[in-house]
User: What shape does this take?
Amino acid sequence: MTQSPEFARCLCARLGLDPARACLVWEAPAAEERGGLHPAYYASQRFLIESSGVDASRAGSNRDLDAEMRGWEAEFGEDVGMVREMVDLAMPHYRYLYERRFTM
Assistant: This one.
C-alpha cells in the first residue's frame, strides 16, 4: 500500500502539498545526460536516475540486508568498503526515521 499513488497523494496532503500535483511519472534522462554524472553518484542513484515513475517492486519491505551486501562487491568493486561504511553510518538515522514512518 505504501507504494501506491493513493499513498503518495495522501502523504502530500498530510504535508500540506497539493496532491493533484504529485509527480508519479517522469521522463528518464537520456544516456548522454547520465554520462555526465559522477560514477559514484550514478552507482548509488542508478535505479532512481533510470526510472520513469514509481516502481512498487523496488520497495524496501522485507529486504535482506545481508543478501544486498553480498551483491555490493560485484556492483561497487574496490569501493565496497566505503559503501559499507556509509551504510553503517546511516543505519541509526534509518532506524530513527523508520520508527516514525508515515502510514495511512
About this structure: The longest helix spans residues 80-99. The chain has a mean pLDDT of 87.
